[in-house]
Amino acid sequence: xxxxxxxxxxxxxxxxHLAYFEKGISxxxxxxxxxxxxxxxxxxxxxxxxxxxxxxxxxxGSKGIWEGNMLLLKHEQATxxxxxxxxxxxxxxxxxxxxxxxxVRSPVPGDEMNFRAFTGKGADLSDFDQRxxxxxxxxxxxxxxxxxxxxxxxxxxxxxxxxxxxxxxxxRTPYWPVAGFMPPEPSDGKMEQYRRLWESYRKNVNALKPExxxxxxxxxxxK
Length: 223
Description:
Elements: H1 2-23, H2 25-33, H3 39-54, H4 59-87, H5 89-97, H6 99-102, H7 115-119, H8 128-170, H9 189-202
Helix pairs in contact: 1-2, 1-4, 1-9, 2-3, 3-4, 4-8
């Protein structure tokens, strides 16, 4: 179930990143006008692009990039993840009724505010409003604080991940998406749309360097 959710997020967002990195905001607008990109995702990229143009290291630019990423996150939770939660109501009811499983922990290092503690009685992870309130008001601010305090460590981890990705790509690992692998999925309309759009950018993926993926996440000058 969670593997499917992660795969759906990849299929929904990866090609959007490629489109923006390859051709910029004009391509995003074109995809939106053609109906291939929803307004929620388009608005997020417009905000990110405005921030990038202001300069990722400037206060205004950084604010725009953070706000755009927040919009992408909301798009993911309101659409892609919603499908996952709606498909398994019995599981999420069990999670809600079980005190231990409802204590879902934040993935942000050092963030001790779990879902039940933040939401209180009646915590229901499948409820979008509850889930988004936790993300927006607790988890995301904690992540921003972590970035401000541990930026060097985060960049180091991302560079290590990029190196691993390059190594896997060079070995032509069949299960690495950047190497050209497209996970098999049910042949429904939405999945076919994702597949088509992803494939339209895949031919240029090998030209992307690990450092390209870091452009919107610059390492801060260390004092």
